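Lab notebook page, bench 4
Experiment: in silico fold of construct C2
Operator: M.H.
Input chain length: 110 residues
Purpose: comparison with the prior construct
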Amino acid sequence: MALIVGGTAGALLRYALATTWPHPHQVFVSTVLTVGVAFTIAVYLLAANSTSLFASLVLGVCASAASLSAWAVLTISAPMKLSLAFLILTPTAAVGGVLCGLAVARAVAR
């Protein structure tokens, strides 16, 4: 249930970001930042083996906020240069988030 509530909150967050900053370049920046931060938090929680109700809620928010299906739609619908930026930098932010999340989890475990 917490995962569903968190997923709903994450989807609402993405909607709020898209309506607050609707221009293509604004959507690009908010998407890349959201994906990077969401992956960092989600990977940290998974690496730390958090199984609490709160962790499930946060994972739902992260998963929905960083939805890569939204990234695919944005990549297809954007002008050519912006589409290439979406295509390259969004997964780069995701991988960066994974590495940051793992580094933080390792540092906390020590």
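Observations: The two ends are 32 Å apart (CA to CA). Helices lie at 2-20, 24-47, 53-65, 68-77, 80-109.
Next step: discuss at group meeting.
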